[in-house]
């Protein structure tokens, strides 16, 4: 596992180029465009932040498996329902927003969300 993280960090550090400016559509003002070259230490900081999380994943999971309780199970079930409802609300909101604004890109994004939501909740 640490070898994969090291390899990922190395690939990120060597393969990144500066991020191109992003300008708003239809805006002629170049002041709205931003440019941030990715520094060599930024991907290493990300990998450095993720690595401890990955190392703690299994011990934390083992702790919760060994110390299960009805309250913990109830909280986990409630959290899963909230997540499902939240994704459904966002999906319907994006789809409705696209239809109401007659924006085809937003409508298609809503349809893609809907398809992903329905396929993940049935399987």
Structural class: mainly alpha
Instruction: Give the helix level as a range of percent.
Output: over 70%
* Amino- and carboxy-terminal Cα gap: 29 Å
List segments where confidence is low: pLDDT < 50 over at least 5 consecutive residues.
16-29
Sheet with the most strands, sense and barrel status: 2 strands, antiparallel
Strand order of the largest sheet: 1-2
Beta-strand residue fraction: 5-15%
How would you describe the overall organization of this protein?
This protein is flat. The chain is 74% helix and 6% strand. The model is unreliable at 16-29 (pLDDT under 50). The protein contains four helices and two strands; from the N terminus they run H-E-E-H-H-H. It has helices at 2-15, 41-66, 70-101, 104-122; strands spanning 19-22, 34-36. Strands 1-2 form a two-stranded antiparallel sheet. The protein is mainly alpha-helical and 123 residues long.
Strand-helix topology:
Elements: H1 2-15, E1 19-22, E2 34-36, H2 41-66, H3 70-101, H4 104-122
Helix pairs in contact: 1-2, 3-4
Entry keywords:
single chain; 123 residues; mainly alpha; 74% helix
């Amino acid at each position: 596992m640490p070898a994969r993280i090291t390899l990922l960090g190395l690939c990120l550090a060597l393969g990144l180029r500066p991020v191109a400016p992003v300008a708003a559509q239809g805006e002629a003002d170049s002041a709205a465009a931003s440019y941030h070259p990715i520094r060599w230490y930024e991907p290493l900081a990300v990998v450095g932040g993720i690595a401890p999380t990955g190392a703690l994943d299994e011990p934390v999971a083992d702790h919760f498996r060994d110390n299960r309780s009805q309250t913990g199970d109830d909280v986990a079930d409630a959290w899963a329902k909230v997540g499902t409802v939240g994704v459904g609300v966002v999906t319907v909101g994006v789809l409705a927003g696209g239809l109401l604004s007659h924006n085809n890109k937003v409508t298609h994004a809503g349809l893609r969300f809907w398809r992903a939501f329905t396929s993940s909740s049935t399987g």
